[in-house]
Amino acid sequence: MAVNNSARRRGRPPRIDESAIAAAVLEIGTENATMRRVAEHLGVSLPGLYHHVKNQHDLLRLATVSALTNSPPPRYTGEHWATWLRDYATYIRTVLAAEPALVEKFVSGAVGHDVEMEYTADAVEALAAQGLSPSDALAVWASVSTMAVGSVTEAHREYLYSESGQPWLARILALTAKRAPSEFPTLRAIAKSGDDPFGDEAFQHRITLLLVGIAAHYGLSPEP
Q1: Are 143 and 210 in contact (CB under 8 A)?
Q2: What is d(CA 215, CA 217) in angstroms, rounded to the nearest whole number?
Q3: Which domains does the chain have, with CATH numbers?
Q4: What is the chain's pLDDT, residue by residue, as a tens digit (224 residues)?
Q5: 3 state DSSP class of 55
Q6: How far apart are CA 29 and CA 24, in angstroms?
């Protein structure tokens, strides 16, 4: 057995490229991915990994690009405009929520601007085809995109609160416990109902509110 291990060490080191590195980061999990762990996962030396990436920032950048390009956002293919925008928003939330550490890289421009701009160009063309002006098409697109990314940020912040022992409900109870029973009746009712503003169901409801508002404001056909 020792002979086999020695022979393996003397053999040619595994070939790696950026796609393999990105896959390793996503398999390990972005919050746990360090240079050493990724090198071990790939079966290469730490200096060997440094030959391809400079630091952990590079690891997360590659993982972000991989996550968003290997499974790209849904493009408009003629379906109802609102159905497409809901699918897009859900895609962004799902991809980024799966790996919270990717959010920072996404908003800081880790994805090539040419890829992002091409998708934006296609999106506003699709919205303009619904009868919207260029400015209105951009406003609609930006509204949906902002809500999707913002929901991931809020959900991640809530995760951190929960990890520290202060989830949403606990924070409400901490506040209302200090006040008279007559104060904040609406917030108390929310706590009693167990409403979770950070979950998928709440997100889909907010998207519905946004799409209904867009349809009413611009005179577009409502979501089927």
Answers
A1: yes
A2: 6
A3: 16-65 (1.10.10.60), 74-216 (1.10.357.10)
A4: 443 443 444 445 567 888 888 888 878 877 777 888 888 888 888 888 888 888 877 887 787 777 767 767 888 999 999 999 999 999 888 877 766 666 766 666 656 666 678 889 999 999 999 999 999 999 999 999 999 989 988 988 898 899 899 999 999 999 999 999 999 999 999 999 999 999 999 999 999 999 999 999 999 999 99
A5: coil
A6: 8
